[in-house]
């Protein structure tokens, strides 16, 4: 069975929403999705569509071959392309969990399997911000101080039992497309009159550190299964 679903960016985002909706409606308590974009796009929070220069920036990105797609989570623009493996983890948490605990736990449940997977490949991963990376955050998964995986969360509280459900998302740069990715993000910032700029050297692709990275996806799925089962989270089929 092919573990990775190949989807358009819009369909991939819809698949993630559907997974979260199923948990919200209590038809499932957990799920894990791997997907790879069929074509490239620049994905960003809906709030950025309200910027004064957004229409001009959207046209400029499309002319470079990066149409804009809008997502539900926050953060900054993130390039999506066939070079990226997306990991979406969904699960419900106990009612008693406080906000800070559940947010930290969700990042740990997403990042620890990723870090252990990379360590099993003979690499030395870490977590933290990387100056000059697009959509930077303190739960980046890094190699050698360069960003490999970006992470995000989206939360909902389901009315049936009051439990919170989370979609924890990671985007792994598998193939080296750093230069054009950074270029399009910087074009978007420039056309919107924003001062932020990114650097290609702030990022790293897994293929730069390990040959044939796509053959390692099944091992990554196994890491998630083992980690979550140890914490009492049984992934639904």
TrEMBL record:
Pfam families: LplA-B_cat (PF21948)
SUPFAM superfamilies: Class II aaRS and biotin synthetases
Occurrences of domain BPL/LPL catalytic (ranges): 26-225
Molecular-function GO terms, alphabetical: ligase activity
Key words of the record: Ligase
The protein, known as: Lipoate--protein ligase family protein
Organism placement in taxonomy: Bacteria, Pseudomonadati, Pseudomonadota, Gammaproteobacteria, Pseudomonadales
């Amino acid at each position: 069975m092919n573990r990775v679903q190949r989807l358009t960016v819009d369909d991939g985002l819809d698949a993630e929403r559907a997974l979260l909706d199923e948990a919200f409606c209590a038809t499932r308590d957990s799920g894990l999705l791997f997907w790879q974009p069929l074509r490239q796009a620049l994905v960003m929070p809906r709030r950025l569509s309200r910027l004064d220069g957004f229409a001009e920036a959207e046209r400029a990105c499309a002319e470079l071959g990066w149409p804009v797609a809008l997502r539900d989570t926050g953060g900054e623009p993130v390039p999506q392309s066939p070079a990226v493996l997306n990991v979406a983890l969904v699960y419900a948490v106990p009612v008693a969990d406080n906000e800070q605990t559940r947010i930290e736990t969700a990042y740990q449940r997403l990042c620890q399997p990723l870090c252990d997977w990379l360590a099993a490949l003979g690499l030395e991963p870490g977590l933290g911000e990387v100056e000059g990376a697009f959509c930077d955050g303190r739960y980046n998964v890094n190699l050698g101080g360069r960003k490999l995986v970006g992470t995000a969360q989206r939360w909902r509280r389901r009315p049936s039992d009051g439990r919170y459900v989370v979609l924890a998302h990671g985007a792994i740069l598998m193939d080296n497309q750093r230069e054009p990715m950074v270029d399009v993000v910087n074009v978007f910032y420039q056309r919107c009159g924003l001062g932020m700029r990114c650097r290609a050297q702030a990022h790293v692709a897994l293929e730069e550190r390990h040959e044939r990275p796509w053959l390692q996806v099944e091992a990554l799925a196994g890491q998630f299964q083992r980690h979550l089962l140890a914490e009492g989270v049984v992934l639904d089929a």
